[in-house]
Automatic annotation (TrEMBL):
Gene Ontology MF term list: DNA binding; zinc ion binding
Keyword Membrane: no
InterPro entries with a match to the protein in the record: RNaseH-like_sf (IPR012337), Znf_BED (IPR003656), ZnF_BED_domain_contain (IPR052035), Znf_C2H2_sf (IPR036236)
The name this protein goes by in its record: Zinc finger, BED-type
Superkingdom in the source lineage: Eukaryota
Keyword DNA-binding among record annotations: no
Database matches in SMART domains: ZnF_BED
Pfam families hit by this protein: zf-BED
Keywords in alphabetical order: Metal-binding, Transcription, Transcription regulation, Zinc, Zinc-finger
Domain BED-type: 14-69
PANTHER family per UniProt: ZINC FINGER BED DOMAIN-CONTAINING PROTEIN 4, ZINC FINGER BED DOMAIN-CONTAINING PROTEIN RICESLEEPER 2-LIKE
Amino acid sequence: MEIVAETPAKKPKRLTSVVWNHFERVRKADACYAVCTHCQKKLSGSSNSGTTHLRNHLMRCLKRSSFDVSQILAAKRKRKDDTVSIANVGYDEVHVKEEPNQPIMPISYKFDQESKMEEAINFGSVKFDQERSRVDLARMIMIHDYPPAMVEHVGFKIFVKNLQPMFEVVTSSVIEAECLTIYAKERQKVFDIIHNLSSRITLAIGMWSSPDNVEYISLTANYIDDNWKLQKKILNFLTLDSSQTEDALSDLVIKCLMDWDVDRKLFSMTLDDCFSYDDIALRTKDWLSQNRPLLKKGELFDMRCASHLVKSLIQDAMESLKPVMEKIRESIRFVKSSLPAHGKFDEFAQQVGVNTEKRLFLDNPMRWNSMYLMLEAALEYRSAFYLLQENDPTFSVSLSDEEWVSVSTVASFMKLLIEGSINDESGQADGGSHGTDTNASSLSVVPLAIELT
């Protein structure tokens, strides 16, 4: 029997693909093989087979501890376009190098548009890390509120397998456990920050509602750090049961304070405008005073948010103007009752020279900003209402000069409050807690107080 020895194949021309740095081409009889220099596996090495299967083998070769992705991809993706170089892609490697009191850092991309290179994408030398990839996946799910079950979706598994065959896709229960581990680490960081504070904190309690009408209560710690900057940390976000009483909610808040060990650092408590349980702050205040004395004997402890104060001021103004408000509404109803009445009123408006694009409309009593807009429009047509009163006997509503002055005064007052409220909301658009932040609201409330006094 003739024995055919394996001999290195003579290369008629230079093998240009970088994958041949990891394979040796040998010939056996009439067949040509590519032998992996790492695991000695034989693959087809003929010129007709190409190099795609060799590149795929390198991606899966377990004998290779690391590989240069750029070398493998460069031959396939060479272009002469501007190169986008991606570096530093990943979440903060907390599990690799723990740094205390550091929150979760979002993914960061660093784009280098200036470099002109042959490769379209340069990843540099990359080592695959299963643990880091699993943690990054869990953080992605937490940040974007994806369902943990997505890791079991067929499409996701196919995508990940093609992207990184070495990644072992985990189950949803494993991802949930990883999310809880991340939460525990981040919670401990917040706990350490608050525990080491040299200042006191203000607890903001807010109410939230989901599209499914599920109500939540949030507890946010507001404090001044060592650099004299206002900081916020969400301590708890809890689901509310409609059957819970004020006592139960008070006990829930107190339990959260004890879990965070912040009762000794608490300066005040601010309730959201949506919060209807006024006794929670008082019950919490009584509980705290039994353990240690409060600053200023608790005079500054229970406070309402700025939007609540603005709403209370407007409600008082509306109460004093209630009879006049009804006259304004009745006058507008008369004008809008029929086309002839509306046409006659427009003629009176033209006669007295009313030049405005504002239109009369009835307000929504539940929205006080619409009350202001109704009064503002009515004041524009004040002279036209006088003519209507003098020339139309069917119009029985009459407003005196003193009443119109009252409307003008209250409308000016409401304008100040609405503008202050809008400024306050825009200032908290970066993650505020529904207007419960007293310090952030002071810049808009103080000018209001000066103007009103």
